[in-house]
Amino acid sequence: MRRRVLPASIVAAASLVLITAALTAGAKPGVSFSGPSAHRGYGVFVQLRCGDGCASGDGVAVIQLTAGRPPTAPGPCPYGTNELPSVPIVHGQFSSGQWLWIANRTFVWMWVGGRLVSPTRLVGSVEGPPACGGRDGYTLRAPPGSG
């Protein structure tokens, strides 16, 4: 009788460890990703707000997009930083865009789409004014200890 209890307890303990690992495999609530786009025409900031650690792939994405360089480093791309509308994350993906004023007199379409490929890695694309490079991709990693 004792031989059956021992293997059952080991199986139960192993199951508990696997379930815990699966539930904590997602990004932590409020984890942030930030960095430049592939060709450095844009700066991307995305904060994921998920009640379940984003394990289900659902939650809300808060997005900020910067185009160009600060006024102290002028260039052809008009400088501006704007928050895009917060959007739902569905199955680990999101997309948000809006017409915005940048550089006080330039009205442009700004858009960001992304996909959570791991608890600490976000990939996607960004679109802005042609002078800033138009459409570009990005791969962002969360800071160490956040995933």
Q: How would you explain this protein's 3D organization?
A:
By secondary structure, the chain is mostly beta strands. It has one domain (27-141). The protein has 1 helix and 8 strands, in the order αββββββββ. Strands 1-2-3-4 form a 4-stranded antiparallel beta sheet, with no helix packed on it. A hairpin with a 3-residue loop joins strand 5 (93-102) and strand 6. The radius of gyration is 21 Å and the shape is elongated. Residues 1-27 have low confidence and may be disordered.
The structural class is: mainly beta
Helical content class = 10-25%
User: What spatial order of strands do you see in the largest sheet?
Assistant: 1-2-3-4
Please report which band the strand proportion falls in: under 5%, 5-15%, 15-25%, 25-35%, 35-45% or over 45%.
Answer: over 45%
| Tally of alpha and pi helices | 1
Estimate nothing, just give the exact number of structural domains: 1
Q: What's the end-to-end separation, in Å?
A: 43 Å
Radius of gyration: 21 Å
Element order, helices and strands? HEEEEEEEE
Which stretches are low in confidence, meaning pLDDT under 50 for 5 or more residues running?
A: 1-27
Gross geometry: elongated
Count of strand segments: 8
Mean pLDDT across every amino acid position: 79
How would a crystallographer describe the biggest sheet?
4 strands, antiparallel
